Amino acid sequence: MKVAGADMTPEQLRAALAASQRQVADMAAAQEEFLRVVSHDLRAPLRHITSYGKLVREVLGDLPADVLQSPALQEAQEFVGTMEQSARRMAQMLDGLLALSRVGRAPLQLQPVALAGAIEKARAALPMAEAAQWSVAADVPTVQADPALLHELLVQVLGNALKFSQHQPAPGIAVRTVPAARGAGWVAWEVQDNGAGFNPERAAGLFGIFQRLHRETEFDGVGAGLAVCRAIAERHGAHITATAAVGQGCTVRVEWPAAAV
Predict the structure, then answer these.
(1) H/E element holding 132?
(2) Which class is domain 1-105?
(3) Where are the chain's structural domains?
(4) Global model pTM greater than 0.85
(5) Number of Cβ atoms within 10 Å of the Cβ of 210
(6) Which residues contact 136 (CB under 8 A, 6 or more apart)?
(7) Computed from CA positions of residues 43, 49, 52, 53, in that sequence, does the dihedral angle turn out positive or negative?
């Protein structure tokens, strides 16, 4: 059996490799540009839907009281409410696409980042963070990361832990250092909550864009946050996973390059 490239000189192999790398880079750039353009251009009609929904409500509000109480008008107001809710959800989905595109295009500015300080900063950015009991290990490591992108990942991961544990009588979130499976040059940490958890049989697509494991009536969001986290981790050569059980909370594990000594 003839192996592809067996008759090529080293110079030809290097040229073919360079051409393949350019093709991959071009495809990635085209995908990122597509996400950016689509998410930007869809906002104009979405703004029209939102604006006209408010106008319809104003018109309905000016009708006589007896008309407003009629079943037909009550139903019409419900339709408008559904339209406005769907428009808000679509806006959130566009925000998710923009965030994913931005993460893919942002230049990496790698430097040592103390995880303890980064966690505290991310927690301070979360509304209602004080509603949970937090436990952050004293030995969380220093990592080699882009500070802005690491902050975005931590806000998403800690925010999810807070969101999905909010219905517990005593919400609890713990961050701890764990051994890195990849050995020297790597560090690992886990974020564990005592929230709703999820069915592990449905975990395969957890980090995909717009993937949700809970009903919208239970928890808000459109399922874009973990996709952004995965993109951030991959840009750093890191790895992020999650395990859970229904009603027993969730554990997110992150394995990351250690800070250069």
Answers:
(1) none
(2) mainly alpha
(3) 1-105, 111-257
(4) no
(5) 14
(6) 116, 119, 120, 174, 175
(7) negative
Burial of 241 (0-12, 13-18, 19+ CB in 10 A): middle
Domain 111-257 fold? Heat Shock Protein 90 (3.30.565)
Q: Which two tokens stand for residue 44?
A: 């104009």
Q: CA-CA distance, 247 to 127, in Å (whole number)?
A: 23
How far apart are alpha carbons 64 and 66 in whole angstroms? 6
pLDDT in tens, 198-224: 878 777 777 777 777 666 666 666 678
Give the angle subtended at the CA of 52 by the CAs of 48 and 58, to the nearest 5°.
155
CA distance 105 to 30: 11
User: Is residue 143 within 8 Å of 223, Cβ to Cβ?
Assistant: no
Hey, do 1-105 and 111-257 end up sharing a CATH topology, with the first three levels equal?
Answer: no
C-beta of residue 46 within 8 angstroms of C-beta of residue 90: yes
Those residues whose C-beta lies under 8 Å from the C-beta of residue 90, and which sit 6 or more positions away, are 42, 46
